[in-house]
């Protein structure tokens, strides 16, 4: 292994060296190209200098020739000036001389014209040469600036590489020293390990001899004394008590509790749905309070009135199934006997659905045949009839799979163990189908309710009944969705829990063997409890650590909690006193109410003799009553007010005759306000408890995630330590290669510096020559 690692490291170093060598060759090519470019530029400069020198010589010769011609023109002009006065004196001689002078002038003019054209041509050539020289000079300057920037960049790269390699050299030297020390310690440990391995080999030989002798003895004892092996045959193995998995049982009970809650919500929604459907039949399309409904709807209403006897057993069966799953039992399909009863209750409910389905379809057809039924309402009724058929079919499908799951607890050959997982997945699919059907029913019924709301004959009773049916359908939809998601989330656990049973076997053979196993389990648990000695009660260490943090955080608020407890106790005592006080007040008010009712009844009997006499007596009674009230208001003492946290109530003496209706309204309003206040407080307490429960669940999930992240980090730490050791080994092998590379790079950098210095000297010389040429051109 070590040689393979060294070969891999050497291969990596060889690859890095080949990469650096290729980079070095590229740099060399770049330097050679720059040198060739600089040589070409030098040759171009020499050629340009030679052409400039030739042009300068031509210019000098032309300027000299121009000066000569200018002098000659001046002389000729002087001669002409002198010859003009002479021509006036002797015209004859002048004519001959003028002819000669004109011929000479024409010759001079031709020569002058040629010289002028030649001068112009030379000026144009000089201007073009000057422009070309300026252009070449600008190009050379730009090229010089780019070369300077490239040289600066190369120098910066070289400086950075030198710093980097010096730092790596220092690090490698330090690592080398550390690794040398570590190698020495490892050699010592290797020697110790060799000695230990020799000792372990000796011990292994001794143990092998000892175990072989013991194995022979145990085999002889088993062959002589053991009558049979109970794990060899599945019939006997099924009677063995499996290892108790408390976590599995607690989770199974928790899941069963959640399923019970969902089934209770579903049962409540089904009861409301059937009851409100019965109320709707009594109202629409014919109101039973106005006219008699059809015999079909009467029979349908009679069947719907019996829905509780079919729906309630579902909740009871699920409750019995939940109670059968305890911490001490072994929960598998062979031991869940109560699932059979739940399946029977579900079968009876499906029979009820089959019984009411034709009546429900005929009732919807009767609604469609009504005179006020529109086409949209008729379409919604047809959709609802299809949905009801689907709902019954989904319940039948679900009952079939649940009956199959209940077979292993009653009939051992009813369902093969290999088909358990497929049946469970089909149950999940059926629950999702039930949820989809309920969503369709909710959608179509809401559309139907909105259409019926627009009808002119729609009563308020029908609107409220439709709202109640919609709320029950929504509750059914939500319950079905919760059950479907719950089952799909836990189907993997259900499938995995099927293998929970006796060791080295495929599971329980029959329900009888499962029942015998549970009895054996109870006997074994009782025996273990009898053997176990009672220990002193003590707090576990982990729980004590957890409680210590709580105590430390709650020491400051201990006094405040004590004060709150005292205040709450005082309030409780006050409330109990007020409760007794108001119970007495209620009894007194009841007695007074009975007396007033008797007085009013007597008064009504006395006034029943005649209408006119009654009216006169009422007028007289009113007059006398007003007088008596004025007198009694003066004579009656002031009312007594009783104040408390429950409310404020005014009491008068027994001699006062208060108005019955006002007293009843006062008492009723007071108790209604108190009931509203107590219900609001109860709702607030429930919401707080739900919030605290959710917060606790979230904290537990966060704790589990933190533990998982801790495990992952420990594994990452192990991997990182292994990688560190591997890198340290690689550093020792790469040190020499880096030193060789650094030496080669330093030689290459020296050669590059020399070439750069030569290029700078040449560029300076070119600058000087270009400056001299520009000065000469300016002077010219």
From TrEMBL:
<dbReference type="InterPro" id="IPR049372">
    <property type="entry name" value="PPP1R21_C"/>
</dbReference>
<keyword id="KW-0694">RNA-binding</keyword>
<dbReference type="InterPro" id="IPR040024">
    <property type="entry name" value="PPP1R21"/>
</dbReference>
<feature type="compositionally biased region" description="Low complexity">
    <location>
        <begin position="95"/>
        <end position="104"/>
    </location>
</feature>
<feature type="domain" description="Protein phosphatase 1 regulatory subunit 21 N-terminal">
    <location>
        <begin position="11"/>
        <end position="112"/>
    </location>
</feature>
<keyword id="KW-0175">Coiled coil</keyword>
<dbReference type="InterPro" id="IPR019343">
    <property type="entry name" value="PPP1R21_N"/>
</dbReference>
<dbReference type="Pfam" id="PF10212">
    <property type="entry name" value="PPP1R21_helical"/>
</dbReference>
<dbReference type="InterPro" id="IPR019348">
    <property type="entry name" value="PPP1R21_six_helix"/>
</dbReference>
<feature type="region of interest" description="Disordered">
    <location>
        <begin position="84"/>
        <end position="104"/>
    </location>
</feature>
<dbReference type="GO" id="GO:0003723">
    <property type="term" value="F:RNA binding"/>
</dbReference>
<feature type="coiled-coil region">
    <location>
        <begin position="696"/>
        <end position="730"/>
    </location>
</feature>
<dbReference type="Pfam" id="PF10205">
    <property type="entry name" value="KLRAQ"/>
</dbReference>
<feature type="coiled-coil region">
    <location>
        <begin position="558"/>
        <end position="592"/>
    </location>
</feature>
<dbReference type="Pfam" id="PF21636">
    <property type="entry name" value="PPP1R21_C"/>
</dbReference>
<dbReference type="GO" id="GO:0016020">
    <property type="term" value="C:membrane"/>
</dbReference>
<feature type="coiled-coil region">
    <location>
        <begin position="137"/>
        <end position="196"/>
    </location>
</feature>
<protein>
    <recommendedName>
        <fullName>Protein phosphatase 1 regulatory subunit 21</fullName>
    </recommendedName>
</protein>
<feature type="coiled-coil region">
    <location>
        <begin position="3"/>
        <end position="72"/>
    </location>
</feature>
<keyword id="KW-0967">Endosome</keyword>
<dbReference type="GO" id="GO:0005769">
    <property type="term" value="C:early endosome"/>
</dbReference>
